[in-house]
Amino acid sequence: MSIHDLRTFPPGTRFRADIALIGGGPVGITIARELSNSRCRVLLIESGGPDLCQEHQALNAVENIGEPIGRASAEPLGRGYNGSLAWLNDVAPFELRNRTLGGSTHTWIGKCASFDEIDFERRPWLPVSGWPMTREDLSPALARAADLLNLGPNLYDDGLYRLLQTPPDGFDFDADLLRPFFWQFSHERDRRGEPMRFGRIARDLDAPNVDVLTRATVTAINLDRDARRVVSLDVRAVEGVHATVQAATVVLCAGGVENARLLLASNAVMKSGIGNSRDVVGRYLADHPRAAIARFVGPDVDKVARHFNFYGLSHHGRPHFYLHGIRLSPHVQRRDALVNCATYPVQVHAAGDPWAAVKRLAQGGSTGLFGDLATALRSPGLLAQGAFRRLVQKRGMLHRCDELRFDVMAEQRLDADSRVTLSEQRDLFGTPLPRVNWKIGATEVESIKRLAHGLSSEFVRNGLPAPRLADWIAENDEGKAVFTDMAHPSCTTRMGADPSVSVVDPDAMVHGVDGLFIAGSSIFPTPGHANPTLMVLALAIRLADHLKARSERRSVVELRRQLAATGK
């Protein structure tokens, strides 16, 4: 595979490929990887370069007119990042995108899970819900995506218990109210603890049929006069170089905001934007509303952290750790017309945490060598206990903490008025900025409250400490609620069979535009509550399989046409 810089080509260069992929994040790279060493000539087009730079990041600007600005009565929550990634909490809503080869994995922490079976169902209390496939249908692609992400088994419920080295203690939780849920974390195969970086996957890809064009922003998708197929892409560098890409097949892999924006802005032939004859492009914008719902302090922290922590297993000779949390049961979702949501523990480490000191010493990141040594030496018992839990029991270590918090991420009930449109403001290429109007509905709020009250009552009933619920939940005052986006925008180019409520068909091709496909979370029919990376890669692999089969069918048709023309 060759990586090129658009700035090194003469203005007006015309690139040709069989398949053009717009976006060099994990989705685009995964599709390129699946198509490697095939007969297809693939061009992966990335707006940024090998590293983050401010000029390209400025292209992420949006005009935000919705949440979370609408809930500014309380202190902002942030997205939950800490340490070297704490700066991500300050990035404006819907602007946390990485224009660089590797995309979002440049700054992610690797958190992964798959959607639940109920997430795929048509749920009568949730309009336009239902996927054109079941979780079982997607299972083979999920397994391939998990392998790519260096994950363990794709189990995220109590079925995982039988595989764990030492599973969590069993609780008599009401299964009609709460269910266990787990997340796992993707990491590099040769760098334990380092989240997987897809930029490395791209650079290491041995594929003579794949080329990468960096510092190349696609500013328009050009259709033929009948608006039935793509004829070319306009591509520009921030330094002014412009080029054209011609490809029979184009796949948008630019994320939940940019996929919709590019379709809407490419309006030379279809005045309302490509695929938008029914005014659906950009609608149903969802994210994962995040909130802190419960806290523990003092001695209660250790009592709870012993049960809600990391739990490990060995899979194909490699260790994998899963984070233990809780979700609303399918029963209560159906009975009370709620959405799926799950809560997970967040430990706020004390300044004198010995394991944090050991980690800094081991990684060479200590700024106070003697202070960290003293902190570690003062707690031999806690270090010994933590080492036993980690090495023998395959469990997370017990840290010295000031607080244990439970945060929640919720699915959203789709709202057609929650949407991405075009702003009157423009970027340096003259392309309209995305105008983002994210709405958080009453169903999400009620579901989060139900989960919080259920967690509190079931903890007490099982002999665990009672948490301090968030003030807005305890006081039943939703005006004090504080939510943030999780940089998981989805559903803006939904997948479905009905063009009146979807943008792409079940094969992810834009309705009515032959050869134009979309990949990523924007095609989710519903957003689920789980982090999207595993799901988007499974759908990307599924799409790559379809593109390969489609290419083979076209080759057969073309061969037959040529034979017929020669009379053979």
TrEMBL record:
Pfam families linked: GMC_oxred_C (PF05199), GMC_oxred_N (PF00732)
Primary gene name: betA
Sections of the chain in a coiled coil: none
Cofactor: FAD
Superkingdom assignment: Bacteria
Annotated organism of origin: Sinorhizobium americanum
Keywords: FAD, Flavoprotein, Oxidoreductase, Plasmid
Family classification: Belongs to the GMC oxidoreductase family.
Molecular function (Gene Ontology), one example: oxidoreductase activity, acting on CH-OH group of donors
Keyword Nuclease among UniProt keywords: no
InterPro entries given in the database record: FAD/NAD-bd_sf, GMC_OxRdtase_N, GMC_OxRtase_C, P2Ox-like
Gene3D superfamilies: FAD/NAD(P)-binding domain
Domain Glucose-methanol-choline oxidoreductase N-terminal, residue spans: 206-289
Signal sequence region: none
Glucose-methanol-choline oxidoreductase C-terminal domain ranges (all copies): 416-540
SUPFAM superfamilies, sorted: FAD/NAD(P)-binding domain
Database matches in PANTHER family: PYRANOSE 2-OXIDASE
Name listed for the protein in its UniProt record: FAD dependent oxidoreductase
